[in-house]
Amino acid sequence: MLPLLRQEAKFTLRSRAWVSRLLYDKAAKKVTGVVYTDTRNGEEYEQPAGIVVLSAYVFGNVSLLFHSGIGEPYDPATGKGVVGKNYCYQLSRMGVTMFFEDREFNPFMGAPGSVMALDDVDGDNFDHSGLGFFGGSRMACGHSDGRPISYRPVPPGTPRWGSAWKRATAKYYRHSVNIGVSGSNYANRNNYLDLDPTYKDQLGRPLLRLTYNFVENDYRVMEYTVDVAAKIARAMNPTIMGPPRVRRGDYDIVPYQSTHNTGGTIMGTDPKTSVVNRYLQSWDAHNLFIMGASTFPQQPAYNPTGPVGALAYWAAEAILTKYRNSPGPLVHA
Length: 333
Ligand SMILES: Cc1cc2nc3c(=O)[nH]c(=O)nc-3n(C[C@H](O)[C@H](O)[C@H](O)COP(=O)(O)OP(=O)(O)OC[C@H]3O[C@@H](n4cnc5c(N)ncnc54)[C@H](O)[C@@H]3O)c2cc1C
Hints:
Number of domains: 2
CATH class of the largest domain: Alpha Beta
Distance between the termini: 34 Å
Order of helices and strands: HEEEEHEEEEHEEEHEEEH
Bound molecules: flavin-adenine dinucleotide
CATH superfamily of the largest domain: FAD/NAD(P)-binding domain
Helix content: 10-25%
Number of strands: 14
Radius of gyration: 23 Å
Number of helices: 5
Strand content: 15-25%
Largest sheet: 5 strands, antiparallel
Strand order of the largest sheet: 7-8-9-6-12
CATH topology of the largest domain: FAD/NAD(P)-binding domain
CATH architecture of the largest domain: 3-Layer(bba) Sandwich
């Protein structure tokens, strides 16, 4: 977008600007601008604004609302409040890897768009009777990268270092393929974002805190859908099949899983239970539009960025064709 935007005479890009809060006029239900620090010299500026688009990623969106006093923070004890509510996280790092002596693949040529994706056990695409869970997973089989350092699939039982490991990584680089499984994650009362009582940012303000764990529904989604992936893998008749990767036990933030965080400033039809309306317009400030996966009420198994972009276009159109002609709430609750 930047080359296009730069052709606009009125466009200015201000890089190295770290926004610390939005200026909020609660009585008028409007934001009047933002406060930012120029990170080159530490100087603070106030930028007045007619419309503010808050698009600082899931965690930035939520913490900026907290630091600006916009919207009621969610309280897990009472279930009241909205900012920080419905944090969800894609169930990931699941699947099964197969090794074939007699078949060759070219992982270095792989592109995510060329994988074969299956939605047979995703969302409501299948009969959940008697399964004891709702939701599901999407599966993808193929190569999305073959990076020489990070991509080193080896069969179970291979030593984790040394010459035997080196031989196995060379041998199986072109002889393995994976079915990756990513599951939906629905909101529950105990998973949420709030301000941390201990840790502070550079301005001495509380950092955002994430409280999250899997619940039984998540484990069942993972077990059922990974089992389906394993059946498909067996039918592909590999020489060696790796152990199906499912998860049990508490959530652990340390290993990289995915960056597909959602929720915290969710979209809805009622200001009592959501932060923005269907046009991503804040219920608490009609000239504030919040964009990003923080507006997703649930995590629907798929990666978020496609709908994030689509919703941004949808909201931009509403700003241009509706809001500019008649500033005010676009939806009356
Ligand atoms: C390694 C990795 C792999 C990924 N792979 C995929 C994938 O395969 N498929 C997929 O769908 N998604 C993927 N994602 C997720 C995807 O990148 C995000 O969903 C997407 O970028 C979100 O867009 P956004 O505009 O909401 O936020 P971002 O793209 O994060 O943009 C937010 C911007 O706000 C700026 N910002 C934040 N806070 C402030 C502040 N206080 N002041 C000023 N500026 C601020 C940030 O610098 C950033 O430029 C991946 C992410 C990562 C990290």
